[in-house]
Amino acid sequence: MILQLILVLPLVAAAGSFWPSKRRSLPGIVTVAANGAAFVLAFIVAARCAGGGVVTALGGVLWCDAFGALVLVVCAFAALTAALFSIGFTRRKTRPMQAGRVRRYFVRLNIFLASVLVVPLLANVALVWIAVALTTLLSVFLVSFDRHTPALEAAWKYAVLTSMGAALALFGVLVLYWAMRAGGGYAFTWTGLASIAETMPPELVKMAFLFMLIGYGTKTALVPFHAWLPDVYSQAPAAVCALLSVLETTVLPYVLMRMLPLFPGVGINWAGVWLMVFGLLSAGGAALLLIQVKDLKRLFAYSTIENAGVILTAAGMGGAAGFGAMYQLLTHALAKPFGFYAAGGAILFLGSGDLTTMRGLGRRSPWAGAALLAGGLAVTGAPPFALFLSELSILAGGARDLLFVPVVLLTVCMVIAFGAVVYHVTKVVFGEPAEEAPAPAFPVTYLLALVVSFVPVLALGFSLPAGLQHLLRLAAAAMGR
Amino acid sequence: MPGLHPTLSLGNELNLLAAGFFLLATFGLVATRQVLDCVSVFAWQSLMLAVSAGLVASETGLTHLYAVAAITVMTKSLLIPWLLARTSSSAVVARREISQTLTVPTSLLIALGLATLAYFLAAPLEAAAPGAHVGVNLPIGLATLLIGAFTVTVRREALPQVLGILSMENGAFFAGVAIAPDLPLFAELAAAFDVLVIALVMGLLTRKLHERTGSTTVADLTELREE
Question: CB–CB of B180/A181 below 8 Å?
Answer without folding.
Answer: yes
